[in-house]
Amino acid sequence: MSLQKELESVVKTYTTEIGLIGNFVRDVDRSLTRKQKRKPKSEFTQEHAKELRSVVEALDGVLSGKVGEVNLNISNEVSKFILQKIIPLKHEKFLSEMALSYLISHQEAFLKDYIFEILVHRKYLLRSGTTITFEEVNNHSSMKALISFLSQKEVDVIGHGSIDDAAEYIKKKFNIDMTEHAKWDELREANYRRNIIIHNRAKTNDIYCRKTGYKHRNKHLTTSNKYVLDSVETVKSVIEFLHEKIELKLKLKKGPNKKLNTDAAKNAVPVRQVNLSTRLHLSRRPLGAIRRQEV
């Protein structure tokens, strides 16, 4: 299959799956909203409403630090009403945080799969200075298998880095500036928010504040379903942006004749000259015929 077809397939696969994440969030959000709008089964009197206000005032006092611990005697009717409203909110928190984490993992996987296809089909773009051992070379029965191995090795490095590292890689490799996208800052924030959700219980840390410009450390960030749905559209638009730029850069479609980054082109290593840690030099011969050269 041609490179253009492979890239289109990757884009279609991920935009479809990301769209399904958005659909899932919408469906569950509607369900939670219906639960919150249900009327109490028992009659909710004026006395119950007054009791509820006193509970809210007491909780506000505790949260603000104005009062210490408080003892509340809550009727069954008010207790059930509070649970009816609070539980859906708690469910929304779980849903939105899990959905955002799943969404960003798809974004990261997309970048790896997309760039992998480019490297496999355009071998000259493989990173300069890539080193592999004689044993690694000997484990592959063909040049195609070796190219696939080297390409995967390179994209795995992208997967271990941050969203900013990925943008820097794309800039150096293809001379495409991802920061030109109108929603790039939103995408960066979503990535660093996902990190603190997973590693810091959604509380801001030094990295998040430094990367996003947020001023308050150790503050819990609330992630709503609307935030996730907005992030879904942002990720999809960034994928489309990158794909359009790549099509022009690699001349997969007719467009402005823009060259790849000059430095990247100079540093691109032909496959037959991959620098091996054991000073192996690949040639046109079958891999079994490669001989180890003495230093």
Ordered list of secondary-structure elements with their pairings:
Blueprint: H1 3-37, H2 46-64, H3 76-121, H4 134-138, H5 143-160, H6 163-174, H7 184-199, H8 206-212, H9 225-249, H10 262-267
Helix pairs in contact: 1-3, 1-9, 3-5, 3-7, 3-9, 7-8, 7-9
Fraction in helix = 55-70%
Q: Strand count, sense and closure of the main sheet?
A: none
Rg (CA only)? 27 Å
Q: How many structurally independent domains?
A: 1
As a percent range, the share of strand residues is: under 5%
State the order of secondary-structure elements, H for helix, E for strand.
HHHHHHHHHH
* Span of the ends, CA to CA: 41 Å
- Structural class by secondary-structure content: mainly alpha
List the keywords.
mainly alpha, 295 residues, elongated
Explain what you see:
- By secondary structure, the protein is an all-alpha fold.
- The chain has one domain (3-19, 94-289).
- 64% of the residues lie in helices and 0% in strands.
- The protein has 10 helices and no strands.
- Helix 7 packs across helix 9.
- The chain is elongated and about 80 Å long.
- The two termini are 41 Å apart.
- The model is unreliable at 268-295 (pLDDT under 50).
